[in-house]
Amino acid sequence: MSASTLPFEILVHIASFLSTNDKLTCILTCKAWEPAFQETLWNTVDIRHKGKLNVIHGVLVSKGDSVHSQGTYVRVLVFALGLKVSSEQLRTFQRHCQKIQHLIIREGGLSKDYFLKKPDWELWGALTRLEICLSGLNLVNEPRELIYIISHLPRLRRLDYVDAMMGPRPLYKLQDFEALHNHLPQLEYLSMAVWLDVVPTEDLTIIKGATPANALTTLKLYVDNMDLWWMYYMAQKYSNIITLEMKIDTELRRPNSFREDETSKLLDLSDVFPRLENTLIACRPNTEWSQLTLWDLFRRFDTPLKNLKYDLHSCYDMSGSLERTVSGSIQSCSRTLESFHISSYVDFSDRCKVPRALSFCPNLVDLQITSYITIVALDIFLDHCAVLKNLTLSVSMLSVIASPFHDSTPHGLESLKISRATTNGCILRYTSLRCKNLKYMYLIDVNFFGIINQETGSLCIDMCDTRFKYLELVRVSFYSSSGDRENSLKFLCISWPNYSLISDTMLQGNNDSSLWFHMYSSLADTGPHNNGLMVLSEEEIRLSEKYFSNFRLNSANVFGNQEEDRFYRVKSTWNNWIDWRKSLSLGYATIRCASVEKYHITYES
Q1: How many CB atoms lie within 10 A of CB 589?
Q2: pLDDT for 238-263, tens place per residue?
Q3: Per-residue CA distances from 140 to 144, 165, 266 (Å)
Q4: 20 to 30 A from 235, CA-CA: which of 22, 180, 357, 576?
């Protein structure tokens, strides 16, 4: 088979690996290749600056039909942030690129002369995905214009609408959402950032008569003015959604008597999100009522939620509202919950309330807590989460209440990730003893404090019961509990008995084996400090072990013999000489484990 007779599909696949210039060369090389390479060349048109916009528009206008055929290859068209495409330019793209399936118009992508020549959106009737921002166009009625646009795009399956306006923003009514779904019967994914209008009492008939949007499976709403009636509408309208993301910035102020009287209407629903599996809720201050109402609905109607993410990146009072809303979220779906992620900038006043709520989740296998001012007791979560497999903790301080050698119930935890925490070696010793199935451990920006043995210079972290499949240490620092907290230990040793270590360096051990690292920080000739990590050679390991074999004496002696001095000074990647002697005198950290199959260790910033 000659190159000129290669099938179209194979040529398209080959083109996917080539640069734009290479594709142009192939088009000029063989006429039989031209259709395939033209298609991939024009498949995605991403216009990021005014110069490129003017060039493409000028070519489309001047070349007419010859480029019109190329325009039919365009499937994805992007107008970048602040591009300000004029109404005339937009109409040109609509005429020449009528087969696009994915259109992205970012904030400021269209100019304010949008109405000088009304775009013909019917020409883009093949669109299946639209991402659009109409903010800043001085539209008299922005919701109406959005409805006008989508009324010509009946094939849309995904709509992402962003309202980026600062200050007063247009209000969206129930009627706007109803019109949107009437025009888009095939819509499967809806993401909207809008202000919700107050629902008047007379519009309750719209809610009761709303036809479910059965095709929709993903709903993402970023809203202000959340109200009871909007929750009522969403529960009625979106009965088939599987994924729900709701970010509530503000909620409508209502008297408590109104809330209590009208909440009963929600209970008249036959079901609430019966297929919902994945939920992300993000809330601001003073939206507690909206959150508790949502959790109460989930609980009353037994919503089968599996994965819950709860973002509380805001200031809560310290009267227990944080624990109340978090516990409410867990209890609302405790029977089916498998994964729970919570992120908060606020400390928990009662650090046992959330773990106790988790004890009612018999299927919880994945737990992630991000709260950089919270102190967490690892053993409490292990005690209350019996089947947990993956645990991620990004907290201020990590501790254990029980003794590391306390006779605790064995736990099946397999993966542990700790980041941005201060802790000590007892936590990992406790984990190793209790979690015999631990296979993966990730330590990122963690500070360890411990006691240094004055005879050996070692701060030992004992995980000798753990066989790692993967171990990752990223910018992990070790400090003496009683020493200088400004100077971390610069040497790290990972040791394991009687097992081979397979890693990037392909080192293997026969009997007792170890791998040594030097974590250094040097001042470059120009620029900031350079942090790095270096694997020690066999001779450097021998010298280090010799030094630490008599640590008490050597650390007191700042002078050494000439033979050793040449090993105490090594070149960093910045061509600076680094003196080991001061680093050696601080001691070293060692992590003992049963085995390591693969590792990744870095100290770079």
Answers
A1: 27
A2: 999 999 999 988 877 666 655 566 66
A3: 9, 14, 35
A4: 357
